[in-house]
Specification:
5-stranded antiparallel beta sheet; single chain; 8-stranded antiparallel beta sheet; alpha+beta; Glycosyltransferase; 597 residues; Beta-galactosidase, Chain A, domain 5
Length: 597
């Protein structure tokens, strides 16, 4: 896409900023009407009561202990440090929110002590990034958040605290980003770090740098740098890093774009490019039902954030995104209802928008990403199938070309395990020894004991027919180049969905350079697996409401539970069952077929 600000010089940006001195980048945080509306919402949706119940200004502020921080460098564990960070961040959000809402439990000293404690920290860098960054995701997010708290509560926070927090943001984030010695790759990376770090810088600078010329000089190249992360999205708007990183990385781009739009009184609109609008729609392609979504790459099931959906709809009319947000009712994951607004940002933006309870039922084909979603006839037995082609060299890659998910009877019958628990091995040379990342943990074949390999040269191609029609829907994935050379001469996987019967047929057509010695078809699930006595089919899930997987040729089904080291397994992850089918006969040319109903 075209470089952001390609036709706007920094001098012209300075004039744009100078023309609107009355405009701020976060007007909703100081708008009396927005604050009054937020108070009403908080009292209705339980946030007010939560503050009454949980906020304790007498509570000791969590200390960022050196030993906890060093836990990562000593044994690769992030959890202890992140737990302390999350606890203090939660306290800061609660304390700021209470003051902003004028809640009876609000305590200015408690908020100021929390901010002061952050200023006392020897670093704002996350433990896992200490040796690789001067400015990282955590420090950029902190800079933006602290600047917005100072802005929202400027008439209450004492001058000494404001001056120190501003000085620390300047020292730890603003100046380091501008240091010519800073050659960190995230400046122009084509992945989430770019949008998070550059976006955090922009939001902090907009609130702290008052001179329009200096502000424009500071943010102009940083805005342009965000183009590179947009280039990391294929032209169809898909997110190679997975649905979770769409919310994290692109979510920070949206926040920065919204702030710039407000500060320039609508003159600067980074969201106007058609490709950006396509990126905004990616969650619709990845969504399955409720909190369930495609878990390809390092992703998990979950909602998209309400504030991101609200800000996107400030620019584009995509109310379908509201269906993917949390509801006020904590027991509701789908259906109609008000959206959950439980933090200062979202409460300030929220004006009563609702999910209509009519989720998008369309099929999706993202040819550049290599993603397809096929839906059967709506109803209790509706089947939804997602499959991925792409390549094995993307950020947060899993070796999963040809992997597919099957959702039916409100269950993930076949799944992708999603992201492992991050530690010092997740992004190193041992990444593809981890079940969550290697192809053995996905529903793809194992050929002569050979798994798929990592790297952009290992790729698949996807072609689709019949989508959004009433007849058979077909996705064909050429998986040949997903494996090392000479593993297979040709491997074509075809997924055929009959929408009327909500049934799926999977066909894998092989041609080998010579007769294989071993071949395993694999199907990965978190569900209970029951082998039939005859061995020709397996049951995934309960007897009623499950899915039956049937082989159309002689062979044997077997089930193994994949064992992974505890430090790689996210808390609450159920056992990963790998169903393998061993064909009775092997030959140089083979076609294997399976039926799911």
């Amino acid at each position: 896409m075209n470089m952001l600000l390609r036709d706007i010089s920094f001098i012209e940006l300075a004039k744009m900023l100078q023309q609107h001195p009355q405009c701020s980048s976060a007007p909703q945080l100081v708008d009396p009407r927005a604050i009054a509306r937020a108070r009403r919402t908080a009292k209705r949706n339980g946030v007010w009561d939560r503050l009454t119940r949980e906020l304790d200004p007498a509570r000791e502020i969590p200390v960022r202990k050196r030993s906890v921080f060093r836990n990562f460098s000593r044994n690769g564990n992030r959890s202890k440090h992140l737990a302390v960070e999350a606890a203090r961040s939660h306290e800061l959000e609660q304390a700021a929110l209470a003051l902003w809402l004028k809640h009876p439990k609000a305590d200015l000293d408690y908020l100021q002590d929390l901010l002061w404690a952050y200023c006392d920290d020897w670093t704002w860098i996350m433990a896992a990034h200490e040796k690789m960054s001067v400015v990282d995701l955590g420090s950029a997010i902190k800079a933006a958040r602290f600047a917005e708290i100072l802005f929202a509560l400027e008439d209450q926070i004492e001058a000494e605290v404001k001056e120190r927090v501003r000085a620390e943001i300047e020292k730890r984030v603003l100046r380091p980003v501008w240091d010519y010695d800073n050659t960190e790759k995230w400046h122009t990376a084509r992945m989430n770090w770019n949008h998070v770090c550059n976006g955090g810088f922009i939001r902090a600078a907009l609130l702290l740098i008052k001179d329009p010329a200096i502000l424009a000089r500071a943010i102009h190249p940083v805005i342009q740098n965000m183009t590179y992360a947009l280039d990391g999205f294929p032209n169809d708007g898909g997110c190679e890093e997975g649905a979770g990183y769409w919310g994290f990385g692109f979510g920070h781009f949206v926040q920065a774009a919204y702030a710039l739009h407000c500060r320039t009184n609508g003159e600067l609109n980074l969201m106007a490019d058609p490709k950006v609008e396509r990126i905004c729609r990616f969650p619709l392609a990845a969504h399955i039902s409720g909190t369930m979504r495609a878990t390809f790459a390092d992703s998990h099931h979950g909602h998209i954030s309400t504030d991101t959906a609200l800000q996107i709809n400030h620019f584009h009319n995509i109310p379908e995104l509201y269906e993917l947000c949390r509801r006020e009712d904590p027991e509701t994951t789908a259906g109609p209802g008000r959206l959950l607004a439980n933090d200062m940002h979202t409460l300030a933006l929220y004006a009563g928008q609702k999910a209509a309870g009519t989720p998008d039922q369309k099929d999706y084909h993202l040819p550049d990403l290599g993603l397809v979603k096929l839906r059967g006839q709506p109803g209790p037995s509706q089947i939804t199938v997602l499959a991925i082609a792409g390549n094995n060299g993307v950020p947060h890659n899993h070796n999963d070309i040809g992997s597919f998910l099957v959702h039916k009877h409100d269950r993930m019958a076949l799944t992708d395990p999603g992201a492992p628990l991050y530690n010092n091995k997740t992004f190193g040379g041992e990444r593809y020894a981890i079940i969550f990342c290697r192809s053995r943990g996905h529903s793809v074949p194992l050929i002569n004991g050979t798994e798929q390999a990592a790297g952009p040269q290992y790729r698949g191609t996807l072609s689709v027919t019949g989508i959004n029609g009433s007849g058979t829907k077909r996705a064909e994935i050429d998986m040949t180049r997903a494996y090392p050379a000479h593993t297979v001469t040709q491997l074509i996987r075809t997924l055929e969905l009959d929408p009327a019967s909500n049934q799926l047929t999977l066909t894998d057509a092989y041609t080998f350079p010579q007769k294989p010695k071993a071949l395993e078809e694999a199907f990965v699930t978190f569900e209970k697996v029951t082998l039939a006595k005859r061995g020709d089919h397996v049951r995934l899930g309960p007897a009623r409401g499950g899915v039956t997987l049937t082989a159309r040729q002689p062979g044997t089904f077997e089930v193994e539970t994949l064992v992974e080291r505890p430090e790689h397994v996210p808390p609450g992850t159920p056992p990963i069952h790998r169903i393998r089918f061993l064909p009775a006969n092997l030959s140089k040319t083979m076609t294997l077929q399976f039926h799911l109903a």
